[in-house]
Amino acid sequence: MGKSVFGGTQSVRALAILLSAACQGFVCERTVAQGDTSPPVVTEYDVVPTWPKRPDHVSDKGWVSGLSVDAQDQVWFFRKGPDPVQVYTADGEFVRTWGKGMFSNPHHLRIDHEGHVWVADFGLHVVQKFTPEGQLLMTLGVPGEKGTDQRHFNMPTDMAITRSGDIFVTDGYGNRRVMHFTSDGSFVKEFGTAGPDPGQFVLPHAIVTDARGVLYIADRNSGRIQLFTQEGQFLEQWSNVLMPWGLSITASDELWVCGSSPHWWYRHGVYPEYKDQMFMRFSTSGRVLQTWMLPLGDIGTDKDHPDTSRLKPGETVGAHCIAQDSQGNIYVGDIYGERAQKFVPVSTRQNDSQASR
Q1: Which domain holds residue 2?
Q2: Is residue 62 helix, strand or coil?
Q3: 8 and 119 share a domain?
Q4: pLDDT tens track for 268-286
Q5: Burial class for 179, CB neighbours closer than 10 Å (0-12, 13-18, 19+)
Q6: Which helix (H) or strand (E) holds 34?
Q7: Rounded CA gap, 102 and 108, in Å?
Q8: Residue 261 and residue 207 in one domain
């Protein structure tokens, strides 16, 4: 045998041995990867297409802009339609509806620790408190009047109610501020100004509070969540993660957020509200614990008159509100798709062993 360019016969043999070992290792690794049937560490979400079981006399028209789950795992949503407040069990059974003719532009809905129902109506410029049966208990703001003083809102978006009864309102579409009231509705203070700097607001769209009393505010159009003390002191911001439309917080202090991936809210003379759909779970320290993408549905070209017949189960268009029940199910309401949907967490499937090959 002649001299090899690799340095002789021994080098050629050594190289052959190495290549053979590498190929065997590749085959072995590929075989292990294909045959691995370990349980998945990823949680997926399946939509329940038959939820909710809406009776014929209840309308399915209008944006679902607000949604909450109460202590009995009943799901409440607030929609811009003939039957604004609708309640269903976790299994989808109809419980009640009320509010016909009472609202102008429904936005977010919350359930406080005593079971009272709170709603923000940016068309009437008010935040209102109701019994679960629909009896009005309190109105903050002057119905039909907008303003900048202590008595008025300008298109409020959401409210957070602490366990002590304090009320924090994101006066968002018009005034770019947060207003603080006592449990009896007396004004305490306001904080925030319009702007992109930390502690300012571009559009405070949703608000929740955790067990420590920290306020989480979805400054939607700037693509950030800002954290404040109840005294109005800015703590930190989580930016460039998603465009946060809706917030909710669990009993174990995990924050759920729905919206879309980050983008400029205003571009080339138009407002592209979303380019996809998603929900995420955060710890109170800001760590991302979970992400799930939702298919973006097709409703035609006119969002004000959507063709919802095009939508498939699980698709959303303008995911606006989110909540989790005690079993880990996620409920998402979207405005242009005009519906609320239930998503069930899935960690195992019958064909897992086949799918992993």
Answers
A1: 1-35
A2: coil
A3: no
A4: 888 889 999 999 999 999 9
A5: buried
A6: helix 9-35
A7: 15
A8: yes
